[in-house]
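queue> pop job 88
queue> type: inverse folding (structure -> sequence)
queue> payload:
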């Protein structure tokens, strides 16, 4: 049974993930009916998108947006709190777009322990015996469904029950965030294609592909909805940029050293996909400094090798540890988390949001998945 608006807002205060899930489920059910009216086949395709959105995820982006709003004076008792919940839930549809497209670009086979969207639709094509190449159909379906997720994100955000002025204020971070994440994705593809393994390139991708739309802009969005001061917005952005990059650096470590049973992705998948992460950049930089051509050559050979086996992954792991790259990234995560918390302490952020943001910073950078 659908809860009443006040119940949804109370849930958003204490059980935000469930509340966001409820908003998304209701919205996607309504939009799914729209697509089924176009054609049942399109409805079936968008049902796969709905399943993808609702099948898991940390709901980290709306969580930061909610507490950014609360820290700027927003209250669950506010008449527009339900509108805030609806607006920030739209962030999960931007996340869905990014993941569907990213999995396609990286040729990832699984996501959250399940086949990725392009793989799923390629399988449907093959099983049905349709004309053409299954992989091409799967890629086309993933592009279109990712685009639809982005369109629906904007629709949900702009149709939320927020006052016109709040929507107007929130437009700037919303628009910047969408451009930044796509810019970051393009730079990621570009750097992989050009072979740029520099730490600068890796951090540039981390800044725009992850940090901006994971922490920094969601906080900015919540602050804008609450009409926060420029000083608080600046604090949030400093905090968000540092925590967002630290979050991605933890992801990079998990992509090589993580347990597949926990992460939901095969061990070493980042290596097979050729991701030019800071972890790999520092390893190659240190190998060059130490004159270890053999180590550099082994890492370069593994990077982007789709047939890299478990033994190959273990060899690279050993090199990353021996070269000190793993430790260096851990130290970078700790330093950026510390600087983010320092930024948080300089602003007048209302409780319980200040404490909650501090806890989220630690949780986001010490996670195992």
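queue> result:
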């Amino acid at each position: 049974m659908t809860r009443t608006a006040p119940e949804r807002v109370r849930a958003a205060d204490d059980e935000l993930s469930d509340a966001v899930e409820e908003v998304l489920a209701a919205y996607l059910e309504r939009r799914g009916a729209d697509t089924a009216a176009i054609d049942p086949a399109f409805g079936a395709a968008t049902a796969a998108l709905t399943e993808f959105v609702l099948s898991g995820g940390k709901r980290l982006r709306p969580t930061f947006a909610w507490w950014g709003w609360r820290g700027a004076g927003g209250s669950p008792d506010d008449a527009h709190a339900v509108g805030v919940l609806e607006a920030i839930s739209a962030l999960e549809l931007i996340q869905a777009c990014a993941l569907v497209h990213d999995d396609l670009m990286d040729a990832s086979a699984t996501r959250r322990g399940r086949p990725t969207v392009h793989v799923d639709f390629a399988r449907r094509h093959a099983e049905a015996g349709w004309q053409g190449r299954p992989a091409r159909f799967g890629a086309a379906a993933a592009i279109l469904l990712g685009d639809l997720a982005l369109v629906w994100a904007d629709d949900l955000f702009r149709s939320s029950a927020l006052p016109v002025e709040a929507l107007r204020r929130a437009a700037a971070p919303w628009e910047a965030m969408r451009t930044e994440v796509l810019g970051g994705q393009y730079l990621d593809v570009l750097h992989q294609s050009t072979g740029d393994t520099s730490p600068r390139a890796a951090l540039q991708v981390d800044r725009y592909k992850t940090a901006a739309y994971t922490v920094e802009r969601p906080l900015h969005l919540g602050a804008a909805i609450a009409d926060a001061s420029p000083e608080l917005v600046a604090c949030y952005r400093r905090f968000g940029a540092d925590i967002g990059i630290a979050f991605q650096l933890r992801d990079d470590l998990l992509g090589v050293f993580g347990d597949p049973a926990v992460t939901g992705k095969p061990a070493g998948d980042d290596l097979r996909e050729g991701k030019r992460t800071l972890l790999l950049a520092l390893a190659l930089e240190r190998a060059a400094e130490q004159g270890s051509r053999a180590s550099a050559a082994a890492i370069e050979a593994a990077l982007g090798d789709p047939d890299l086996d478990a033994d190959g992954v273990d060899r690279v792991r050993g090199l990353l540890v021996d070269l000190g790259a793993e430790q260096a990234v851990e130290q970078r995560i700790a330093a950026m988390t510390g600087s983010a918390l320092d930024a948080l302490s300089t602003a007048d952020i209302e409780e319980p949001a200040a404490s909650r943001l501090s806890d989220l910073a630690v949780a986001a950078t010490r996670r195992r998945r």
